Amino acid sequence: MSTTSDxxxxxxxxxxxxxxxxxxxxxxxxxxxxxxxTWADPRAFLAGFEREGIGAIVLDxxxxxxxxLSVLDTLVAEGVDQPVIMLxxxxxxxxxxxxxxxxxxxxxxxxxxxxxxxxxxFDLRARVADELDAFGPGLRLxxxxxxxxxFWDICFRHARNYPAGHCKSPGN
Length: 172
Fold this sequence. Notes:
Elements (H helix, E strand, L loop, with lengths): L1 E3 L6 E5 L3 H12 L4 E5 L2 H7 L6 E6 L7 H10 L6 E5 L4 H10 L3 E4 L4 H20 L12 H13 L14
Parallel strand pairs: 2-3, 2-4, 4-5, 5-6
Antiparallel strand pairs: 1-3
């Protein structure tokens, strides 16, 4: 496992057994200010990634030991809500259909279209910002306010992955 970019941004987990693919896609994803954690082994990823974090998962379909589709099935069964982007160099319509039915957010072929992947990165950053900004500027939450629990849940789940100071205590 290796990590790149700003530790305060959403995390993209990149799982691919091909080192050259991992390095090039990590560099590309990092250009939009997202933190990238690369994994060569899908089993190590399943054992080590933080399920409560915010971000996305970029997952190769064909890997030794366990397929990306099996990893996707495991993530869905565990209730992981991070979007999963499937990658393959040998895609078929049936494979794509299975991935979408299983819960994949996107299915991209290798070599990956740089612009498509960058657009997905910007979409992720916007989703994080929208999730927190939905509470409105100058938010004040009082004890017992039903929105307080939801607000703090978002802040604490995403605090390490979001710019410092964005989540402030009520009244600040």
